[in-house]
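Hi P.,

Sorry for the delay on this. The queue was packed all week, but I finally got your sequence through. Input first:
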Amino acid sequence: MARTTHQLIHGPEAATFLDAFLPAYEEVYAEPPYQEGPREVAEFIERFQRQAHRPGFRLVLAREGDEVVGFAFGYRLQADTTWWNGLLTPLPQELTRETGERTFAVIELAVRKPWRRRGIAGAIHTRLLDGLGVQRVTLTMRPEPEAAPAQRAYQAWGYVKVGRSRPWDEAPVYDAMVLELR
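Then the structure:
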């Protein structure tokens, strides 16, 4: 078994790495419950190119040799974020207020099927959050039972469900999770 390495890329430079991890994205998100096809992949590409320019953007690529086996990325939520607007039950303002330095949002974290259950997701997550200097981390994810393995992993890493969210009109309902760092 080859050794897994992790590469951390900051800011807009991350956009130049899209071709490196896009095959992994396509593979992972073709699986249930996502079942993404060409239209969704094209939307992802467009969204990623924009997200890479957000303040505090980070991308982590996990590789075995030259092959990307997993990835994660996210960015800091700015004061004018709409991140919390999709909550089905609004949270108190003290929980949803953002400053640009308070919260890092994990947008994607994925590991290709042959490399799952080896601790690679946990290592990617740790590298993504290393040295962030924020108070907390948030993410949205599919609820159980759809995403039971991911739910168990995030809970083991300390995330707590704070609500349910529909981030855009056609989106499925996600669990909104928060990990307090300090």
